[in-house]
């Protein structure tokens, strides 16, 4: 199966990088209250290298004893020597509902614009079932499976699935695992890996890996950084299959 080497590689990368990263995460507590996290990062240089980056993110979460609703928004811009190197905007939300101690159902939606990847807009909706492999006060580990539909609009017509297209929709299988671990009173680790095999064009797939660590400086202030990895086996003409982003910043927690 073509995606097995990718899964093994990403698992190894996640294990190696997790201790070195610090990505803030919104507080999860089953008390029916909304909690928020705002993160900002920037880097500007001039002289021999004129470059600048700006990264903004916001998260929200509401959890009870039997359900959880989360959302997240991100904006990433980078420019070097007058050339755009990153321009990506995203918004996603997911709702989980337990129907037993170990099992839950989920529904999610996502919007993405990535100009340098030739994506004018990507709209995804997904639904399925998951299992709580373990969950306790210091963290959780979930696995899930389901079906989704993704519809892409491209900035420029490109060769996708053997034809020149300006848009492409497909049914996808959804395979995911996610975990959060409270390592100390001030340090928490989280990671999520999702795989989306294309059910319209056999052998094509997308993969997403996010991993990070929260280091709290005060009750509301966190130093943050994060690693994201995106892979598309058929991204289109003259585009690379993989995108990796490492971001540092400061987060404010509103609990």
Descriptive notes:
With about 260 residues, the protein is mainly β. The protein has a single domain (about 5-255), classed as Outer membrane phospholipase (ompla), Chain C (Beta Barrel). It contains one helix and twelve strands. Strands 1-2-3-4-5-6-7-8-9-10-11-12 form a twelve-stranded antiparallel beta barrel. β4 and β5 form a beta hairpin. The longest helix is centred in the first third of the chain and has 14 residues, at about 5-15. The N and C termini lie far apart (about 45 Å). The relative contact order is 0.17. Residues about 5-25 have low confidence and may be disordered.
What is the topology?
Blueprint: H1 4-17, E1 35-45, E2 51-63, E3 67-80, E4 83-98, E5 103-114, E6 119-136, E7 139-160, E8 163-182, E9 187-197, E10 205-216, E11 221-232, E12 242-254
Antiparallel strand pairs: 1-2, 1-12, 2-3, 3-4, 4-5, 5-6, 6-7, 7-8, 8-9, 9-10, 10-11, 11-12
Structural key phrases:
12-stranded antiparallel barrel, Outer membrane phospholipase (ompla), Chain C, 12 strands, 255 residues, 1 helix, 5% helix
Low-confidence stretches: 7-23
Mean pLDDT: 86
Identify the CATH homologous superfamily. Nucleoside-specific channel-forming protein, Tsx-like
Radius of gyration: 19 Å
Strand composition percent: over 45%
- The DSSP helix count reads 1
Order of helices and strands: HEEEEEEEEEEEE
- Overall structural class, as computed from helix and strand content, comes to mainly beta
Number of domains: 1
How helix-rich are the residues, as a percent range? Answer: under 10%
CATH architecture term: Beta Barrel
What form results from the Cα inertia axes? flat
Q: How many strand units? A: 12
In whole angstroms, the N-to-C terminal distance is: 44 Å
Largest sheet strand order? 1-2-3-4-5-6-7-8-9-10-11-12
Largest sheet: 12 strands, antiparallel, barrel
CATH class group: Mainly Beta
CATH topology: Outer membrane phospholipase (ompla), Chain C
